[in-house]
Amino acid sequence: MTERTAGLPVKANRFLYWLGGIGLRLLGGWRIEGQLPDLAKGVIPIAPHTSNWDFMVGLMVKFRLGLQVAFLGKHSLFRFPLKGFFTRIGGIPVERGKGQGVVETMCDAFAKRDQLILVIAPEGTRKKVAAWKTGFLHIASQAKVPVIPVALDYARKVVRIGDPMDVCDNIQLALEKVQAFTGQAQGKNPRNG
Predict the structure, then answer these.
(1) Number of domains forming the structure of the chain
(2) Is residue 85 part of a domain?
(3) Residue 4, in any domain of the structure
(4) C-alpha dist (Å) from residue 30 to 11, 22, 100, 193
């Protein structure tokens, strides 16, 4: 098993592939619909995010597909004993509510790396929100990378992968497209979505 240097950042690992498949079955028989494009860089908004179980489903998909991704997570999760685990699987701690330059930091990361897929929950929390955060779109726009929407549908037990889209400068239009793609998916706790 070898690591590729161009295109979608994947690293084949038979054990993790097997673990991802078993995990998806044990979590209720999840399926993956669609295919990630062979792109070296991109932002993946995954919604709806209504439960801690979303992370487990996402982790099993990551293992099954062999993806090397980065994700933003609440800083309080990055403490002993989980800090090493979250960092090793691509986690980047973020203090929510603080203007700490996350967009600029991530744009710099995209500029410095040959491959980077960033996964973000656009709601920014598991709770019901009036409006999604748009930082993921600003990152994609400024870094000039596509957005690949992903929907977690607990009703059908499907992780649905959408087609890549360019954000350009129309953040509102891109937001509407991502919300339309993920809007029919039912979260684990629908009252939070």
Answers:
(1) 1
(2) yes
(3) no
(4) 22, 10, 36, 20
| Coil, strand or helix at 193 | coil
Which two three-digit tokens encode residue 164? 């890549």
Number of Cα atoms under 13 Å in the Cβ half of residue 150 = 28
Q: pTM for the full model?
A: 0.89
Cβ atoms of 42 and 102 closer than 8 Å: no
Over the stretch 39-52, which tens digit does the pLDDT of each residue have? 999 999 999 999 99
Quote the CA–CA distance of 59 and 53 in Å, as a whole number.
Answer: 10
Mean pLDDT of the chain: 91
Residue 144, domain member (yes or no): yes
Cα–Cα distance for residue pair 178/136, rounded to 1 Å: 11
Within a domain: residue 52? Answer: no
Domain range for 83 is 31-46+70-186
Provide the 3-class DSSP secondary structure of residue 53. Answer: helix
